[in-house]
Design brief:
single chain, Rossmann fold, 486 residues, alpha/beta, 7-stranded parallel beta sheet, 20 strands, 5-stranded antiparallel beta sheet, elongated, 15 helices, 32% helix
């Protein structure tokens, strides 16, 4: 089916045509976005209309049919065309059911039309695509039929992604995994039969594959998400919600899928740091300004690498640490709570006008705009602006101030550690080197996502490659009190 522009009597907006999109996709996207419109549908001599107001289907007409009968009748047509028009006032709504129920019921009725197929076979025929050239093959695992359809619509809108298959629970996902060999699995957390945690354990043991956790990013879910990352999930993303910009949400999900799919999870080594005895924790009352700085830049796939490095740092590292992590701001308190009892350094969230104090580690999400300055007393502090709120963030760099400003403020007393998924610019790294700072990475073969590391090494920006479990000692030697050498 194809859409035509809005009513041509209104000379505003864009005119165009959408190809390869289904009527149900338009309805899903409209309901999810809370939009209002009328959809006029035609098949041969038949014509019908569906009226959506503020994301709810309120009325439908098709010949002599009105309400739900008309809605289901239209959606069972096997082909035709439709156009989206301005919403019309509905004085007497003929449909009372919510959009989710209507779409699920329509899907059930369509499945019943598939002669000679069971319900599962019908779903497979509808949802599995023929392989495309050099496209990422994603398997969706979610017990919600409507969520599967919404995610499928979002992913199929990207020419670089195909939906390889859909599973309703972890058990079905493991069965399909052997047959489909996807490039990435978008995995729900809570499902019947077999939940996401159990499924992830089996995936990592039987057929390692990059996994992106899809969850409702609310405070109560962050502890669970942390457990998934510890089990080998590459990254996580928020499920679509109907009170936000649907196109922006699609952009975020597609971006994270492309990044996570580059992970080589065969390199994953489970790591759960133990809590350290209280007497080994460095004194939080230490307020000495940082004379040295270690910037730890990680992104997608770099979670465990960052955890291994931060939990291995000891008091002989005479520096402050600023670490970027691939996480929304609202996730940081959970990560701080997890790391603090496992790190000798004091761990906290980085805030605006944050003074950089020795033996402290400050966490900040990728995408925040940071600049390091020195006050009149030459004490370093961080100016933080344009921080994305809540869960609204993309994996983009900030305003490119962090590395250049750190190089100007700390010079040779700066070390930059690049881990999996690190976001950087070559010109920024060049300023670090020109200022006398050091750039180090793990060996690329150790990294879950090695692209950014390989790029930095190949370009000659990396002066040292050090194994993760040796990196804390290397940094401590370089930043020992009173010594700043190579």
């Amino acid at each position: 089916m194809a859409t035509t522009p809005r009513d041509k009597s209104r000379q505003e907006g864009f005119a165009g045509t959408l190809r390869n999109i289904q009527l149900t996709d338009i309805i899903q996207m409209c309901c999810l976005a809370g939009a209002s419109m009328m959809i006029r549908v035609s098949q041969g001599q038949q014509q019908g209309t569906i009226h959506i107001v503020n994301g709810e289907v309120l009325h439908a007409e098709c010949g002599s049919l009105v309400g739900e009968d008309a809605f289901f009748g239209i959606l069972q047509w096997e082909g035709g065309s439709f156009e989206t028009l301005d919403a019309q006032p509905i004085e007497n709504p003929s449909i009372q059911k919510n959009c989710q129920f209507l779409l699920m019921e329509a899907a059930r009725l369509i499945d019943e039309q598939q002669a000679g197929q069971t319900e599962e076979e019908g779903e497979a025929a509808e949802d599995f695509e023929e392989p495309g050239p050099e496209r990422l093959r994603v398997m969706i695992v979610d017990d919600s039929a409507i969520m599967c359809k919404i995610l499928s619509s979002m992913l199929r809108a990207d020419p670089g992604i195909e939906v390889a298959g859909i599973a309703k629970n972890g058990e079905q996902a493991l069965e399909l995994l052997q047959r489909l060999s996807p490039d990435l699995i978008a995995l729900d957390v809570n499902m019947p039969v077999m939940d996401g945690s159990t499924a992830l354990k089996h995936i990592m043991i039987q057929s390692p594959c990059p996994v992106l956790i899809m969850s409702n990013l609310v405070q109560s879910a962050y502890g669970t998400i942390l457990n998934f990352l510890n089990l080998g999930a590459v990254d996580f993303a928020s499920k679509p919600v109907n009170d936000k910009n649907i196109l922006l949400q699609q952009q975020k999900i597609v971006q994270r899928i492309h990044l996570a799919a580059a992970a080589d999870v065969r390199r994953f080594r489970r790591f759960r740091p133990a809590k350290i005895p209280p007497d080994l924790k460095l004194d939080p009352a230490d307020t000495d300004p940082a004379g040295d700085l270690v910037l730890v830049l990680s992104g997608t796939g770099g979670y465990l690498e960052a955890v291994r490095l931060l939990t291995s740092m000891k008091g002989d590292l005479q520096a402050a640490v600023v670490a970027t992590v691939s996480a929304p701001p609202l996730f940081l308190p959970t990560l701080v709570e997890y790391l603090n009892p496992r790190c000798r350094f004091q761990v906290s969230e980085l805030t605006d006008q944050q003074r950089l104090v020795r033996h402290n580690c400050y966490l900040t999400p990728v995408g925040a705009s940071l600049a390091i300055e020195c006050d009149s007393g030459q004490e370093p502090f961080v100016h933080k602006s344009d921080t994305p709120a809540g869960n609204d963030y993309l994996l983009l760099s900030g305003d490119d101030y962090l590395l250049p400003s750190a190089a100007r403020c700390f010079g040779k007393r700066l070390s930059v550690v690049l881990l999996s998924g690190a976001v950087y610019d070559g010109a920024e790294l060049a300023e670090v080197i020109e200022g006398g700072g050091q750039i180090i990475t793990p060996p690329a073969k150790e990294c879950i996502i090695a692209r950014s590391i390989e790029k930095a090494i190949k370009a000659g920006w990396v002066q040292e490659t050090v194994k993760i479990d040796k990196m804390a000692d290397w940094l401590a030697k370089r930043h020992a009190a009173g010594t700043w050498g190579g």
